[in-house]
Specification:
By secondary structure, the chain is of the alpha/beta class. It contains five helices and eight strands, in the order E-E-E-E-E-E-H-H-E-H-H-E-H. Strands 4-3-5 form a three-stranded mixed β-sheet, with helices on one face. Strands 6-7-8 form a three-stranded parallel β-sheet. It has a two-stranded antiparallel ribbon with strand order 1-2. The protein is globular. The termini are far apart.
């Protein structure tokens, strides 16, 4: 009886995403020169006092030397000493919808200010598929919000990241703040803007 040919690689149509995030690392990345780890300082994370349901960063004590809560001139999160160059704005789904509709003028003005800074990031603690789906609590067209995000990316050149959960958003923001500080420190101290020799 002839053998049935075996499929070595499953069809992409059969692939399923099984999300199960692993625990965060002790430190996001390390900087090396000539195979030797550089002794780099840790940043101080700053959380804006007006942030609703803020990230505490308590899980990431090995990533920061301290966590401060105080009013920021722009955005929800930054790094001490880099408040005028590094800004993260966080939105959950309901706030994102409100910001792109009823509060659109104010929000766009804030995004324009962020786009003028060297390091800015918009973090949305909701998956993109949910942003693109019908909203149960309003008549807003999901396409309007989605296209507004793409316009922010293409028109203002301001990147955005969508995360499935609040906790994953916290890790992404913590890592972004840490690495933004690290690259800045390396450059200011004559090590060049890369983590390892000929890499990133």
């Amino acid at each position: 009886m002839p053998r049935k040919p075996r499929t070595l690689i499953a069809s992409p149509l059969e692939w399923q995403m099984c999300a199960s995030p692993v625990a965060h690392p002790i430190v996001p990345v390390l900087a090396e020169r000539g195979g030797t780890q550089l002794r780099t300082p840790l940043p101080v994370a700053v959380v804006d006092t007006r942030e609703q349901v803020p990230f505490s960063f308590q899980r990431f004590k090995g990533w920061f030397s301290a966590i401060e809560t105080r009013a920021l001139p722009l955005g929800d999160y930054s790094v001490a000493g880099m408040e005028d160059s590094c800004v993260v704005e966080r939105k959950d789904l309901s706030d994102l919808i409100h910001s792109f509709t009823e509060n659109r003028r104010v929000f766009i003005k804030r995004l324009r200010r962020m786009s003028e800074l060297p390091h800015s990031l918009l973090v949305i603690t909701a998956p993109l598929s949910q942003i693109k789906s019908a909203y149960p609590y309003g008549r807003v067209n999901p396409n309007q919000v989605t296209q507004s995000l793409i316009a922010v990316l293409a028109g203002l050149r301001l990147p955005f990241v969508c995360t499935e959960t609040h906790e994953l958003g916290e890790e992404i923001v913590a890592s972004y703040l840490y690495q933004t500080f690290l690259y800045d420190w390396l450059e200011r101290n004559g090590h060049g803007r890369f983590l390892m020799d000929d890499d990133l």
